[in-house]
């Protein structure tokens, strides 16, 4: 069994509510039109029998449209739907990652306690590279990150566009945003303060492996070392050479099988391509098993699952 740590859904009820808030969402995010995001019958048809997914919502968040109290209520409803879906389809899904509303920090802290910790199917929490126009590393969000560290709750880090930029695109922009957020988290000292903080970065750590030399020689020694404390997935649409570079930089024990399914390659994502890319790597069968399964099992056990 392979565990896909970074797959996405946009469940029908939450999708309907978000489209009521912004009927232009499908124009802003064309990838959100993918039928497998909200059609579980179609997703089951496309599923691979040896893969179970950890699912999180696509990057649409009520905090961008509603005041804190209402945003938190909608997030709770969305998390309830996610939890119910995972429980009802445990042959497809290994677990889920909760959403927060960061314009309501107090209620988000409650969600960490009464939703993430309270349900074994909730394996962590998803944060985005930017929230409410601020970096995820902003001091305003420190209570969330520090609480996740103290409670042993892994953070899934997903990119979003920086709306200050006029030329955002999903080829390069998200990888820049991901890399920049990693740098900001490191420079904010989170790994220094919380050595066991677990952050899983989408898209194999983005630019970090390629620019490892710059990280090593420009940052202070202790911050350069902190960069290697991130965990990364394998969502590169294949590309064995790039995966090899990521593994060389972060280490096998910090690399997790993730595909971004159902997005990336029609009709249902790059699962087959990414599995093939991992199988082609010059690694032992034990190392490949670590990437496919045992690394993530070890991480989620840290919250008692």
Automatic annotation (TrEMBL):
Keywords: Lyase. Gene3D superfamilies: Metal-dependent hydrolases. Residues 3-301 form the Amidohydrolase-related domain. GO terms for molecular function: carboxy-lyase activity; hydrolase activity. The keyword Protein transport does not apply. One of its GO terms (biological process) is secondary metabolic process. The keyword Transmembrane does not apply. One of its GO terms (cellular component) is cytoplasm. It comes from the Bacteria. This is Aminocarboxymuconate-semialdehyde decarboxylase.
